[in-house]
């Protein structure tokens, strides 16, 4: 959601005026029957500058040099030389004839052979040497890195520029340029520059990047945009079997499995920087798969890549992205070492993939220089800082950038800084920016205060009826060391006000020592999740959903007070200790939390029953999230949207007698989530939860297996269970979910164009209840535990209209339980690449 909302901000610009390169040509490659020839190789004659036509045979090629002819080649067709009479030539029609002369015949047509193909012989040599090339040849390495990320509006015509939307902002159109990849005009609207010192140790398998400078145009301090940039551009190695972009796994043209998904053709050979290199063209064997088209030059002795150009095919099953284009260049360090010196990636984000659709370019250029090798650093040097804070990094003077930019900004890039600073003084732009910010964050911004979250304003349940909630938070900036949040809510059926207030203060920035506390009096659906926290402002979706599939009246009045302290002694390892006091009482006359304080006996057949639970609890929890990436260094941080493992352990101690607390117990809970990317087969998530309570406790403190009575898919719940259908004091759940990413549907001809995605999953739970806990139950709710493993399975279709997903879930057993749901359909909305 964050990605698409932020992209919408960029769609408020347009541009004019086209800058002209020395030689620029676009067109289409056809056969004699006027059918497009996909993946034809088009180069300027006498150069290594070229491109591969897309699936519709179209191409665009540009160079700052002057050329007088094109060379066009394609498997099964005669090579053709096309004279260029003008420096700028658009809409060329290039018609290729079938190869006739023996010396013109290309061996491979259509799907190339997997046998006796010289291109594959070279590819196998690349596989053999890929772990011996470049930086892998050295024990240690270090270098300087410069990274430039830019967003540009593209394909906006003059009619759009005259739209009233841009009244008062016409000056932005003075910064128009033309893409040398697509030939489309574009307007730069955002630029971010960073400089790093990079270190690596191949023996220790450790790397470290120290940022030494960062400069962002216009949107300084906007964590959403910074997070968005990090989401888009993860690091990759072209030699890897699979390359991850936009949370999807693309098969690399250098992959060991590439033979199964690509066609390869050996097209040429030439000297490049005094090294003899082969040129190999590659293009996909099938449509709708996550593959590329392009070509690479590879050295004839080291079999190291000298240069590679590739673009994602238009039919690839990926949303909102019309094009992805990648260039990498490698320089010869000495006779045998090729080092990556330039990495360029451009993505064209658009609402559809039509040729003339308007969109946004996202471009990242990464340059490397000043390589040094075999300078050993101690292992502790590579320890990542928990909370990097150096304000000077973000306030470097112009002289720093003049010295540390590896390449100068062009005229339009240099003008972005001044243009965006000016733009933010325009009232109309501020209004547009505020609207998008509200949609992205859920908060309405005022000076030092945010109102919201607006998406929690309305709710409904059988106790409160219609529920209204308003709230807000302090906000002086994204890196605030402290924050106070509060809300109040009102139910129109129970005529009661509820509230919550909490505060956090980071007393030590280096180790992120945070003290927090607060109080909440509200209505809650106990059992909405198993591994719970004492988050004061947590919102229970189950108790405030607008629509449910059954009664949601089994709600609890909760009065929770909590204080805690947490620290992060190691990056992504968090330790928290807390102390809480809560009271629990049924909020409905159709539901009871009653328990026996004195069991029934001959002398007292009714026993003594209590309905109010008063409980004091101390807890300590450990949370480890390797490879988690965060933005900012304040008391609250944003997460970069990339998969990471999550391990959580919580120990709780019930303190009977403290503040009139009722129960003594010990509880342990463990949660583990592991995402697994299985190359082209998609991604799996495995989730394990287990816990046990030692001691005698009432229903309000039991571990309720989370059901899902909403119409929406909710992670870590069971779609076919009702609330309180299973209750335990000892449990283990296991879930497996897999996203095929559309790979299966892509093999079915009539379903390819739908670009749907396939999902499957299985959930299971086992649990028990002690005799002592059964004995004190006076709630009238029958205690059922899944002593025989309960399980359910699901299959789903995603990417329906690009935003909707349907999950179909079947109950595997316990079919004879009262009101058992044997089958359920759940839906969810989301914006996914």
From TrEMBL:
Keyword list (alphabetical) reads: Signal
Signal peptide coordinates: 1-21
What InterPro entries does the entry give? Answer: CarboxyPept-like_regulatory, DUF5686
Q: Which superkingdom is the protein from?
A: Bacteria
Under Pfam families, the record lists: CarbopepD_reg_2 (PF13715), DUF5686 (PF18939)
Tell me the SUPFAM superfamilies matching this sequence. Carboxypeptidase regulatory domain-like (SSF49464)
Q: Does the keyword Methyltransferase apply?
A: no
**Protein name, please?**
Membrane protein
